[in-house]
Amino acid sequence: MRRFGCLLLERGEEQTRYRRHPARPGDLPAQAHQWDEFFNLLTDRMLVGVDLHTDRFLYANAALQKMLGYSAQELQSLYVWDVLQEPYKSQIQASIALGLQDPNHVTATLIKAVRKDQQPIWLQAYATSVFYQGRMVRLANYIDITETMALKEQMDQEAATFYQVLDAIPTPVVIAREKFLYVNPATVTWCGYTPEEFTHMHLWDVLAVSDDLRHRMQINIQRRLAGESFTEEYPPIQIKGRTERPIWARIASRTLWHNHQWVILAVASDVTETVLQEHQLWQEKERYRTLSEVDSLTGIYNRRMFDRALQAILHEHALGRRRPVLIMFDLDNFKQLNDALGHHTGDRVLREVVRIIRSNLRSSDIFARYGGEEFTIIIPDTSLDAAYQLAERLRTATRQHDFHIGTAVTISLGLTALEREDTPETAIHRADAALYQAKRLGKDRVENG
């Protein structure tokens, strides 16, 4: 190693530099020798590489010689960048030129070098400018991180393989936190959004769910991102994509430690056809139910549904849960109206009467066409007086309505409070008898039975 005299470490403001010690006459050689030995002792026993250099190596400790496979003499014959690969050659060459001009130039650089035996080696280099023998040089130390870089490269390769596998899966796969971190090509094709658009989207932006389910899912995700691992079954969820057809998915997900954080890996199964078929089946069932329960002319319950409802109401009444009243009514002189104006007009009058009656009933009241022009109303929970007042309102509203047929349309009503011992037959018999009494006493009136 070249002798560089007695060097003292001086810490200036935001810099570290070496300067010659101002020696007293007669003691400089002794002090220089002491500092020389101290520097040798300090650096040659270090596990990290140390050098002094300008554009060439001036000094290299034993650790650096071992890292690069060169002797000290061989290194001193080389430019510093001779042991580097591009682009690090140009990078270090420029850094050295700057550092030899600027005493404040401190660098931390990852570089790839080549050993004497041509084996590549990765070094983490830290360098600063110091004064040595009246000129500026660079003092650097090096840490061999070849194994670390090899491990990183292996992990990068595994990660690349991982994403290559996900890219090849034909089923939509996403990795996300609150926002999407990765979507595979199948997801892009499925939803119609671009990968760039996904990077700006939250999970909620593509899910058409109720507020309640959204809240449950948000709590679920927060727990997962905190590291908790659990599963929860969700019903098929509608996806808000850019496709013209609706998209439905069943989503399976799990918590995954990925890139130093907890993420959610989700796999979606397209169940659109199944959901649409189930919806079509439900519509068919509803249609058949409507045909079996609803009167096709008036749109209210038919006789079959009335019988079932009356049976259920009587059962609850027997248990003391209800105070029901049954009303039966029909249109006065409807046969003559039909004969005079025709069935088409008669049907229109029936529908208008139903609309009038319906607008005066509660949603809990059960309104049914009993047969022909005869109708029934079950008031599930009321007093007989209140039911009588309702019947009067229905009668008045019908009489006052203009049916545009040149004459008024009236109805007669009979009502009865249901008893606990009643059967459907006895209840209907009393209501029908009250209706007959209203007819016998002049029509367009209400009678109790």
From TrEMBL:
<dbReference type="Pfam" id="PF00990">
    <property type="entry name" value="GGDEF"/>
</dbReference>
<dbReference type="InterPro" id="IPR050469">
    <property type="entry name" value="Diguanylate_Cyclase"/>
</dbReference>
<protein>
    <recommendedName>
        <fullName>Diguanylate cyclase</fullName>
    </recommendedName>
</protein>
<dbReference type="InterPro" id="IPR000160">
    <property type="entry name" value="GGDEF_dom"/>
</dbReference>
<dbReference type="Pfam" id="PF13426">
    <property type="entry name" value="PAS_9"/>
</dbReference>
<dbReference type="InterPro" id="IPR000014">
    <property type="entry name" value="PAS"/>
</dbReference>
<feature type="domain" description="PAS">
    <location>
        <begin position="47"/>
        <end position="103"/>
    </location>
</feature>
<dbReference type="InterPro" id="IPR013767">
    <property type="entry name" value="PAS_fold"/>
</dbReference>
<dbReference type="InterPro" id="IPR029787">
    <property type="entry name" value="Nucleotide_cyclase"/>
</dbReference>
<dbReference type="Pfam" id="PF00989">
    <property type="entry name" value="PAS"/>
</dbReference>
<feature type="domain" description="GGDEF">
    <location>
        <begin position="322"/>
        <end position="449"/>
    </location>
</feature>
<dbReference type="InterPro" id="IPR035965">
    <property type="entry name" value="PAS-like_dom_sf"/>
</dbReference>
<dbReference type="InterPro" id="IPR043128">
    <property type="entry name" value="Rev_trsase/Diguanyl_cyclase"/>
</dbReference>
